[in-house]
Amino acid sequence: MELWLVRHGETTWNEARRFQGGRDAALSPRGHAEARALAAALAEERFDALLLVLNDTRHLDDGGTPGSPP
């Protein structure tokens, strides 16, 4: 079995070295680049199962995953 653990990209609060806790913050420019790089790296991967844990779905479009199902 292979297990992949992926977290969000850098946020504006991470960039400012602010404690974020459970607060939602927008991705920084670097975070957007990280999300796009991850999407490209995973584009050809096939998974048998997926568990997605979201605190806030407001920023789902921030992820850089074109072609993903809604």
Give your account of this protein's structure.
With 70 residues, the chain is mainly alpha-helical. It has a domain at 12-55. The protein has helices spanning 12-15, 29-42. It is globular, with a radius of gyration of 13 Å.
List keywords for this structure.
mainly alpha; 26% helix; 70 residues
Write the layout of secondary structure elements.
Elements: H1 12-15, H2 29-42
In summary, what is this structure?
This protein is mainly alpha-helical and 70 residues long. 26% of the residues lie in helices and 0% in strands. The protein has a domain at 12-55.
What structural class do you assign from the helix and strand content? Answer: mainly alpha
Mean pLDDT: 77
* Biggest pleated sheet: none
Counted by DSSP, the helix tally is 2
Level of helix content? 25-40%
How far from one another are the termini? 27 Å
Inertia-based shape: globular
What percent strand?
under 5%
SSE order, one letter for each helix or strand: HH
- DSSP strand tally: 0
**How large is the radius of gyration?**
13 Å
Low-confidence stretches: none
